[in-house]
Specification:
Helices cover 16% and strands 40% of the residues. With 351 residues, the protein is an alpha/beta fold. Helix 1 (118-129) runs parallel beside helix 2. It is globular and about 65 Å long. The relative contact order is 0.14.
């Protein structure tokens, strides 16, 4: 694991402890991450379903703890307990469980733009966790400024309920180049754009903060990935922070996406495009593709504008809960009070 070098604007006064969270970068490796107010060591006891224990230990004292659990069995269920000590004093303790294999039926949650309101973000996370999702996806803008450590502390104080769910995120414009985004969150591949698969769903996370034109490395990677999809893929889901369609103004990134990315979506029959950036909920269908904006995770809400052609739009804090069974992907948009505000389902186009 790379040594974390943080670029910080230190507005931290008495930073509290937050819980561990899980990221899964593939290759049978899970990283457990946590923070302590005082520098301390890092240890983890991992117990598989047969009762076999493995111990992981990092003697170097740090505030930011990342323990890689490697050589895992994808068919095993694991329990873990992590601790941090300094001068024989225990500063931190947390536990949870996970399995690398997620088989259908399963559910997962989407939300985004969590950056500005710790209280709302915390409530949204608690509401999501009631449904015990296998994994959670953030559409980006998870903090207000990537380089302010206090923002990251509040983010993890909000997400500490997800001790059994893997966490994925797109890079938002507020994370800029993602220096601390990459330090805190261990994702597959490039980490700023990447893919993962559960069941018959291929998830492709794009980075709309960097080039995605026809000549870019990201565009070529994306096209090759679409071309190489296996016959087991029932749904292709693209996640990116900036939406190619919205019911607001037309700006430069929206024009560029319609020139470069949207033609790929349509040519290769992408099923669902998930975005954020606009701080409300919007759902729109065009040329067989469902476009969904979920940006009600905590940032100041944007006004909802009624525009012809949009299936649904409203301005309120919310998340989207998806359920996947073979051949079908169902979704419910649920607001912060637990009310269902929108429902839809997609059927697989694959033969």
């Amino acid at each position: 694991m790379r040594r974390i070098t943080l670029l910080l604007i230190l507005f931290c006064f008495g930073v509290p402890v937050f819980s561990a969270f899980l990221t899964y970068a593939g290759e049978n490796k899970v990283t457990i991450n946590w923070y302590t107010e005082e520098p301390a060591n890092s240890s983890c006891i991992l117990i598989d379903e047969d009762g076999k224990e493995r111990a992981f230990y990092l003697a170097e004292e740090t505030n930011f703890h990342n323990i890689e659990l490697e050589n895992l069995d994808s068919l095993m269920q694991y329990n873990y307990e992590v601790e941090s000590y300094s001068n024989n004093k225990r500063l931190y303790n947390s536990s949870g469980s996970f399995s690398l294999t997620i088989t259908p039926p399963f559910n997962f949650a989407l939300y985004g733009d969590t950056r500005s309101n710790f209280k709302v973000h915390r409530e949204i996370c608690q509401e999501i966790n009631r449904y015990h999702p296998s994994f959670v996806i953030n559409s980006g803008d998870i903090v207000y400024m990537d380089m302010i450590i206090r923002n990251w502390v509040q983010f993890f104080q909000s997400t500490d309920v997800f001790t059994r769910s893997f966490y994925y995120s797109a890079l938002g414009n507020h994370e800029k180049t993602g220096v601390n985004f990459r330090n805190f969150l261990d994702f597959p591949g490039d980490e700023l754009y990447y893919s993962f698969q559960y069941g018959g769903i291929l998830f492709i996370v794009l980075n709309t903060n960097q080039r995605y034109d026809w000549c870019s490395k990201q565009y070529k990677w994306f096209k090759k990935l679409l071309e190489s999809r296996g016959s087991d893929i029932e749904f292709t889901v693209v996640i990116m922070h900036h939406p190619p369609y919205n019911n607001g103004i037309v700006n430069m990134w929206r024009i560029l996406m319609n020139l470069s990315l949207v033609p790929l979506f349509e040519e290769y029959k992408v099923d669902l495009v998930l975005s954020g950036h606009i701080h409300n909920y919007q759902r729109f269908s065009k040329n067989g593709i469902t476009y969904l904006i979920s940006g009600g995770g905590g940032a100041l809400l944007d006004t909802s504008i009624e525009v012809a052609g949009f299936n649904e739009d409203f301005s309120d804090y919310h998340f989207v809960l998806f359920e996947y069974v073979k051949g079908k992907l169902s979704a419910k948009c649920i607001d912060i009070d637990g009310n269902i505000r929108d429902e839809f389902e997609l059927l697989s186009q694959s033969k």
